[in-house]
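Retro notes, structure queue

What went well: the backlog is down to a handful. What didn't: a couple of records were mislabeled last round, so from now on we paste the full input next to the output in the thread. Example, using FdhF/YdeP family oxidoreductase from Hymenobacter endophyticus:
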Amino acid sequence: MEESPISNPGNAGNSHQQKAENKPKSGERPDQGTAPAPDHYRPDPQHQRDESVIPAPDVANAKYHHPILAQPPEAPTGLKLEERAKVAAGVTAVIKSMEFSWSEGGVNRGTRGLLKMNQKDGFDCSSCAWPDPDDHRSVAEFCENGAKATASDADDKAAGPEFFAKHSLAQLSQMTDRDQNNAGRLTHPLVKRPGDNHYSPIAWPDAFQLIADNLNSLASPDEAVFYTSGKVPNEPAFLFQLFAKLLGTNNLPDCSNMCHESSGAALSPTLGLGKGSVTLNDIHEAEVILIIGQNPGTNHPRMLTALQKAKRNGAKIISVNPLPEAGLLAFKNPQDFMNPFRALGALLGDGTQITDLFLQVRVDGDMALLRGIMKHLFEAEDLNPGQVVDRPFIDKYTTGFASFEQNIRNTSWEDIEELSGISRAQLLEAANMLATKQKIVTCWAMGVTQQRQGVQTIQEIVNLQLMKGAIGKPGAGTCPVRGHSNVQGDRTMGIWEQPTKEFQDSLAKEFSFQPPYEHGYDTVEAIKAMYKGKTKVFFSLGGNLLAAGPDTEIIAEGMRKQKLTVFVGTKLNRGHLTTGETSLLLPCFTHADVDMQKSGHQMTSCENSMGVVSQNKGVLVPLEGQMMSEVAILCGIAIATFGSKINIADWVAMTENYDVIRDHISRVIPGFENFNEKLRRPGGFYLPNGPRERKFTTKNGMANFTTTELEKYTNEPDQLILMTVRSHDQFNTTIYDYNDRYRGVLGERRVLFMNEQDMADRGLKAKDLIDITSHFKGEKRTVEKFIAVPYDIPKGNVAAYFPEANPLVPVGSVAKTSNTPTSKYVVVTVVPAHKTVGAPVEVRMAAEA
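Corresponding output:
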């Protein structure tokens, strides 16, 4: 073993350390060490969640009450409708990738960024968390949306002090989200002081002291909220949670609370680990792959390469989604253009067919659909005893099967067909594809997790895998597909409002302090607490809670009530403009930036959707300015806040050499032993994963079947069910352009996808202006000036982009157990647009300000 740079600083980040030949071999189960400690998920037993009603905000008229817009502006940007695409990627994706890369960072800078992205000696893509191959990686190991994310990070335009001196916060809020992102990289620390309507420069030491003074003046540490984005690498994430706990609070809401919290809540008690159980090679080897509530063509495009490989190996794919998405229909792999045997077919052919069976489920109907498939499987087992249900696996590894089986058999076909919108015959076709197979992988994303019964639906997915014995062996298992690059890693690092006693005890031993054991606020509870004035400081490490969260105007009002808001970021977003009394905007490096500290070129790490931790080492020289790394910012704030109460020398050392942070992590978190050594392996290393080895670290040591309740809801005849979705030209809350090429929508984002019969019933035609009102417990929220777009979507269902539709999502409407906002189940009515009554608020221009 080579010396750690802690004992030999000359080893810090040296390239020769990347040449060790100990990578996992393709096709083999990875070496993952011992099984991890259990991470039992439980509903908060210490504090009851705040169930008090927050009055619905006046969403439609908010623009007249506040000159700084919390919602994107309503002005149309030029809608053009085309036929939706039938195939994803291809030549167009390559051209779009180059256009974005070269327009943002220039040809040289943009190309260098792309060629080093997702390489073993490069940096991790800052968009999705799809894993990289263990073995060979292509020269262009990226997708179109990864190229957009990296191009945005590599932007050579600067949004410095002059930009903010020219534009007031109100003026900046009138810009579209796309134009805010495209204004350039943040380069200098900025402050908005009480009464100001501009951000102005501030020195870093003064910014640190301002934060320290506010935190140290709090009556309770729980008056502070520390929010995190999944873009944050492991090392700063570990420091962020440590900082909050040193202060004395577990108020650590993060974006995971709004996306895959339902996955963790379902997987931990059933399988013993709140993560997926498959590797990338398992996708390649699977016989059947179910993709439920996910649009990989836009949200995880590199997944299509894995699906293509699975198809070429003979896999069958069942896609379950309310919308027919291009990426689930067919795929033209851009890599094939470099293969002389496939180039012509890739150019002129129809691409690889991805889906063998498409089940166009109703929004929120996935649980019923899964029950229908399993009901057919039990009937097939009756006719073919021992051929369909894996009884030996069930008897050896599981509990709760009898109750589960009875629950499925007792579910009526009438309820299944009504709730799912899928016929018994279609469900039989799906069941027949699964009946004789055991190498089954089920993938899902926010189309499932953000339902009212998202947790219970995922438990039904687990039930299906368990009854087939399809877990803990090659080619089989659960695959929750995470969104942002390190959202899974941040949770592993301790970003969680419900930390386990074991984790806190390890922190206490390592850093010689008494951490808090009381649970803190998750995202929804933090929004409520901020709105009710229970908190005074909001600190955001990356992300954009205003645009990511539900009930946009409730979040905005909560921000305005803070004494201090702190935003650490790389580019301007709308969330930076709706601020507290005082606000700091602190610029940091991206994944692509070279991070030079005293010991040399630093690297960080990220954990992907399949539990692989790999290095992230920037290659682009940062723009001129005063940007700092996230690690340096957090260490500077910690020293200013705690002074002699902490080991200042240690925090200085962590700033100068990130290997010091990793040595701390190696002693705190199971699976990270010898972290510095393992991170320098080409391709990184796998974290322990009990379910992958059939080691179920649940409380009873078994995999648990779940008996769920299938709930039926009744809505008024004119009501529709809305789900929010992304466009192709966005990633999470970052908007790159106004287009959604695969769905045939160009130049506009304020659209509502509607079934043509639902439009006719309301007297609407294509491109009509409409108003949308959501209904929740007698409350109403209305957004105006959307455009009706006819689309292939089940009758009674509609879809719109977020963040534009987020003001319709009530903060009180959450999934059971996980407390995740139900962005995939919002009851709405739609009417032709009308002129809003209200007096506009005067907004002063820059010259007047």
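Agreed that this is the format going forward. Reviewer comment attached to the example: The chain is about 35% helix and 15% strand.
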